[in-house]
Amino acid sequence: MKQITIHTASKTYDVKIGVEMTNEIVSFIKKSFPQVSKLWIIADKEVYNLHGTAFSEILSRTYDVTTYLAPKGEQAKSFAIYEDAINHGLSNHIDRGALVIAFGGGAIGDLAGFVASTYMRGIPFMGVPTTILAHDSAVGGKVAINHPLGKNMVGQFYQPEGVFFDLDYMTTLPKTEVLSGFSEVIKHAFLSDRAFLQELMDNFHSPEQLDHVFLTDCLMKGIRVKGNIVAKDERESNIRAFLNFGHTYGHAVESASGYGNRTHGESVMIGMIFALYLSEQYCDLTFDLQGFIDWVASLGYNLNIPSHITFDNLYEGMKLDKKSQHGNPVFVLLKDIGKPLMMKVSVEDLRRADQFIRVFN
Ligand code: NAD
Ligand code: ZN
């Protein structure tokens, strides 16, 4: 088992990565919450069907366990499901001595964290993430649900008590979700150093063949990069915004495609290529962009933006980005791998980068 300690201004906690982690989780709860009244598992229904029975069976040997099953993925992050989860807690006598366990991907982490942060003014929660992408969402303490007018519009900063990755769960991830998660690992490499990026390019050849040693190494390094940034800036007042690398154009592509039609990570991959092109043009980045594009295309990322999604559609989306200043999109670009900076980019330059993205497909 591997372990990283995350330090933030409001809390210090450990992220553990290994196999057969449930007994480890029981030991952690015994030590950290000796008086816990109940465990309240908030789970993605699909994930629970695959892995939940064994998980709650082991916990039930020691604890009183109540399980709330939310619809899979992004559907969990609605006001209606949030209310339903609170109803479930109240009617099952979840009290202030309970501990919430998020069991699923990033969406469940966001829902369960938000429920925990507001239930009776806040009860503790821990994460058992089941996707690779959740190496990103499980660290940093952002929890949220969606509003019909925007994703993650209602939320808080609320840190977990601990995070336990069980690699056994990742074996059932569909290929599209493996690629989605790896995109954020690749993003963390761009924000870190060339050696990490090169290691990924040398060793990641197929989303269908992931060995535990390689996956553990990727999760550890990605978590370390994110952990170092949030340690310095928990509430995104400055450098935490670098984690948005690839997300300005990426979010615009994701939302124009209709949420659920393209994974978050694949959209971010397109956004990173867009930002790398701009970085070469305006920040003197030296990088083999074509070699990178060939590699990610060979892995199975679909980089094609359908022609009905126009630059103007995407530009409207980019202007909505939280980093925008006076309605002008601001981008995270790289002057070198591991050296991000923020930059305003003119609409003409954005149009040029958009043409580049469309031409290589
Ligand atoms: P997800 O939670 O939506 O899960 C994606 C799909 O994979 C779902 O259909 C789910 O049922 C399935 N799944 C999950 N684990 C599985 C497993 N082990 N085997 C088989 N299927 C499995 O997706 P995600 O990509 O993990 O997370 C995306 C969410 O995370 C978004 O809502 C995003 O906003 C959020 N996010 C939050 C932060 C943060 O800092 N809070 C950061 C990044 C992303
Ligand atoms: Zn992301």
TrEMBL record:
It is found in: Cytoplasm. One of its GO terms (molecular function) is nucleotide binding. Pathway: Metabolic intermediate biosynthesis; chorismate biosynthesis; chorismate from D-erythrose 4-phosphate and phosphoenolpyruvate: step 2/7. GO terms for biological process: amino acid biosynthetic process; aromatic amino acid family biosynthetic process; chorismate biosynthetic process. Residues 69-178 form the 3-dehydroquinate synthase N-terminal domain. InterPro entries: Dehydroquinate_synthase (IPR050071), DHQ_synth_AroB (IPR016037), DHQ_synth_fam (IPR030963), DHQS/DOIS_N (IPR030960), DHQS_C (IPR056179). NAD(+) binds at residues 106-110, 130-131, 142, 151. Its cofactor is Zn(2+); Co(2+); NAD(+). Residues 181-324 form the 3-dehydroquinate synthase C-terminal domain. Keywords: Amino-acid biosynthesis, Aromatic amino acid biosynthesis, Cobalt, Cytoplasm, Lyase, Metal-binding, NAD, Nucleotide-binding, Zinc. It catalyses: 7-phospho-2-dehydro-3-deoxy-D-arabino-heptonate = 3-dehydroquinate + phosphate. One of its GO terms (cellular component) is cytoplasm. Its EC number is 4.2.3.4. Zn(2+) binds at residues 184, 247, 264. Binds 1 divalent metal cation per subunit. Can use either Co(2+) or Zn(2+). SUPFAM superfamilies: Dehydroquinate synthase-like. Catalyzes the conversion of 3-deoxy-D-arabino-heptulosonate 7-phosphate (DAHP) to dehydroquinate (DHQ). Belongs to the sugar phosphate cyclases superfamily. Dehydroquinate synthase family. This is 3-dehydroquinate synthase. The lineage of its organism: Bacteria, Bacillati, Bacillota, Bacilli, Bacillales.
